[in-house]
Design brief:
Layout: E1 5-9, H1 16-33, E2 39-43, H2 49-56, E3 64-68, H3 85-90, E4 95-98, H4 101-106, H5 111-123, E5 127-132, H6 136-141, H7 144-156, E6 167-171, H8 185-203, H9 205-210, E7 213-215, H10 221-228, E8 235-238, H11 245-255
Parallel strand pairs: 1-2, 1-8, 2-3, 3-4, 4-5, 5-6, 6-7, 7-8
Helix pairs in contact: 1-2, 1-11, 5-7, 7-8, 10-11
Bound molecules: phosphoenolpyruvate (PEP).
Phosphoenolpyruvate (PEP) binds next to β8.
């Protein structure tokens, strides 16, 4: 059975005190209101990772995890401002996002760099959340399946089968991120099913069946249940709605 996952990407939001308050609220609500079946990942800014790790404490056993928003492609050295996979692992990070569209767009991160970052995350034993998804022009041109295929092939398909145990894919159509415009469940399912077919084509059906594929893009409590009802949507990567504990936990509950 593949994992159900709801991950909250806080992006560059919250001071430390605000982030600690948000994490505490989410943790308490998840403990009180959910059945522990969904893997919940809190993904604060780098500066808050260790304090949030302390708040999560032993609740990993109840499937509450810590995630980071990015990591360096380099192992260590003179790379001012970068944060390495080893550093993330040392402060208790379980999951790392690589390839978020905001990194691809604002930091010009391409396939080769993302392949290196993915490799770093995996070699340090953490779980990789690899984002893919097409911008509006590609959606309108009708070539979105090929676009997503290229993103996966170029950055991930050189890997062996073994690390795929620690890979989660997040399909995030760029036109739906932070826009309030959600993909319909049918639009999302079409791409999720395609992603699973591509993984099956490269690594076989059994492995593809085990890979969790998350949807991201203006997911909120009002639309989460119908998205999660689709056969190949295993959970969500949540941006804006993860900054409100009530909204985020309601999305977790929609995934149970
Ligand atoms: C995201 O950036 O990963 C995301 C899904 O954002 P939002 O939920 O705000 O669209």
């Amino acid at each position: 059975m593949r994992k159900k996952i709801v991950a909250g990407n806080w992006k560059m939001n919250t001071t430390l005190a605000e982030g600690q308050a948000l994490a505490s609220e989410v943790i308490h609500m998840v403990e009180d209101e959910t059945n522990g079946e969904v893997h919940v990942v809190l993904i604060p800014p780098f500066t808050h990772l260790y304090p949030v790790h302390k708040l999560i404490g032993s609740l990993r056993e109840k499937h509450i995890y810590l995630g980071a928003q990015d990591c360096s492609a380099h192992e260590k050295g003179a790379y001012t401002g970068e944060v390495s996979a080893a550093m993330l692992q040392s402060v208790g990070v379980d999951y790392v996002i690589v390839g978020h569209s905001e990194r691809r767009e604002y930091h010009a991160e391409g396939h080769d760099l993302l392949a290196k970052k993915a490799h770093r995350v995996l070699e340090h034993g953490m779980q990789l959340i690899f984002c893919c998804g097409e911008p509006l022009a590609i959606r309108e041109a009708g070539t979105y399946l090929e676009y997503v295929e290229t993103q996966l092939r170029e950055s991930l398909f050189a890997l062996d089968a073994e690390p795929w145990k620690r890979i989660v894919i997040a399909y995030e159509p760029v036109w739906a991120i932070g826009t309030g415009k959600t993909a319909t469940p049918e639009q999302a399912q079409e791409v999720h099913a395609h992603i699973r077919r591509l993984i099956a084509g490269r690594y076989g059906d059994a492995l593809a069946h085990e890979v969790s594929i998350l949807y991201g893009g203006s997911c909120k409590p009002e639309n989460a249940a119908e998205l999660f009802a689709q056969a190949d949507i295993d959970g969500g990567l949540i941006g804006g709605a993860s900054l409100n504990a009530r909204s985020f936990v309601d999305i977790v509950k929609a995934r149970q």
